[in-house]
Write the structure tokens for this entry.
Amino acid sequence: MPILTAKIQSKEHLVKNYLEIFNGGLKLTDKEFDIVKEFVLIYLKYSEDGVKEPTLSEFTFSNKNIQHVKTVLDISKQNWNNYRNKIIEKKAVIEKDGELFLNPVIIPQEEITFKFIKTYENGNSTK
């Protein structure tokens, strides 16, 4: 099986490249992508500091951090609500019982494996 490795220079580049892999399925706009990227960076910072779930997601999506993302990306309150709903609708962020969580798939891992299944027009698939 072929192996593709990549050398990443910074955490920001890692997150950007990792999200780009999954954005084909998520179909995030540029702004939605930037929003999710900022929250992933915040999540990773808290994780590196030893914070664990569910507190990790609570901190990531705290009012302070939401305000930070809105300021950094120049997002108004009304636009934030629209973007929030879109990133939830597109499953980059999961809302459960009023709490927000990053989709675990978009949290960078050291190693990922893909399995491709060919599906043809008649609905048959091969491995």
User: Anything to note?
Assistant: The chain has one domain: 11-126. The two ends are 14 Å apart (CA to CA).
